[in-house]
Design brief:
Blueprint: H1 2-28, E1 40-44, H2 47-57, E2 61-65, H3 80-86, E3 91-94, H4 100-112, E4 117-120, H5 160-177, H6 182-208, E5 214-217, H7 223-228, E6 232-235, H8 245-257, E7 262-265, H9 272-280, E8 284-287, H10 295-310
Parallel strand pairs: 1-2, 1-3, 3-4, 5-6, 5-7, 7-8
Helix pairs in contact: 2-5, 5-6, 6-10, 8-9
Bound molecules: zinc ion.
The site of zinc ion has 4 residues, from loops.
Length: about 300
């Protein structure tokens, strides 16, 4: 009994101390995250979009990323901490291509903040169907925990050319929400578009001479990239899942036939079959990231990894 009372007193004291510490610390913290009220809060679904928004918005924006690092945009999850930040957002930049997070969550997110301007980053992007190469469609799993990649390929941002469209859409949104800074946003946008154009030219040249144009990747996020540079993406996943043994054997045969020595995986998706296939073809597993924030740097890294793998 006494122990319980002691604990209660202790908790009360700890609580009081915490309050005093907070009261003292808050004014000293200066312009904290919460008090940057002069900055425009912009919500985005995935990290690469945060890079885009920051490139255009510079020091005039704070970005809230709804799918945090290490998570996949193929699921929707409630995040109470992000909901608070979202309530202060003036604009929401959606990927807009049918990413599961948005299909499942966008309605709810918009009711949290009805004043926020929704911007569809994919407006004007030519959506591609999921590359059916090596996909078995006869088998349908009905659980909802993962995407099946039927219909349009949602990974639109993994194309430098699409990124240029997305960046223009983001810029137009920022100008609409904050017209006073139109010139600032448009100048940043033009500079970033220039860098994207240079990157696209650079990758086109780098991959032009590659003889073997096929690459194997666990999660098929690189269809738009493949489309831009005339490459063939071969997915290990089968309907969003580890492949069955027969399909795995077919992949191994195909890899041998085309002398493929690398199986790409992403940090978010790296099934054990990738290792199995890599071992069978005497090759290696290489990680490429579809969700890195620094788009220019990441696409350069990916292009160079692909060039190396396909030579
Ligand atoms: Zn994906």
């Amino acid at each position: 009994m006494n122990k319980a009372i002691d604990r209660r007193i202790l908790l009360a004291v700890a609580g009081a101390v915490a309050l005093i510490v907070l009261a003292v610390a808050l004014p000293l913290a200066g312009p904290s995250e919460e008090s940057n009220s002069d900055r425009l809060v912009v919500a985005v679904t995935i990290l690469p979009q945060a890079g885009f928004v920051e490139a255009i918005g510079g020091d005039k924006v704070d970005v809230v990323v709804m799918v945090p690092p290490g998570y996949s945009a193929h699921f929707y999850e409630d995040r109470p901490d992000l909901m608070v930040k979202l309530s202060r957002a003036s604009m929401y930049a959606m990927v807009g291509s049918g990413v599961e997070f948005e299909l499942a969550g966008m309605g709810k997110l918009r009711t949290m903040n009805k004043a926020m301007l929704p911007v569809d980053c994919s407006e004007g992007v030519q959506l591609l169907d999921m590359d059916e190469h090596n996909h078995d469609d006869d088998e349908h799993h009905d659980d909802d925990d993962h995407h099946h990649h039927t219909g349009p390929d949602p990974h639109v941002w993994l194309s430098v050319r699409n990124a240029m469209i997305m960046v223009r859409n983001i810029c137009a949104g920022l100008v609409q929400v904050d017209p006073a800074n139109k010139a600032y946003y448009e100048a940043n946008c033009a500079a970033y578009l220039q860098q994207l154009q240079e990157l696209d030219d650079e990758i086109s040249v780098a991959l032009a001479g590659v003889q073997n144009r096929r690459f194997i990747v666990f999660h098929p996020a690189w269809g738009y990239f493949a489309h831009d540079y005339d490459l063939i993406q071969i997915a290990v996943e089968q309907g969003g899942k580890e492949p069955d043994p027969q399909y795995q054997m077919r992949l191994i045969d195909e890899a041998r036939e085309h002398d493929i020595r690398v199986v790409f995986v992403s940090p978010q998706f790296a099934g054990k079959s990738a290792e199995v296939i890599a071992r069978a073809i005497d090759g290696e597993v290489v990680v490429i990231n579809p969700l890195a924030k620094d788009f220019l740097d990441n696409m350069r890294t990916v292009a160079s990894a692909m060039k190396q793998a396909m030579q």
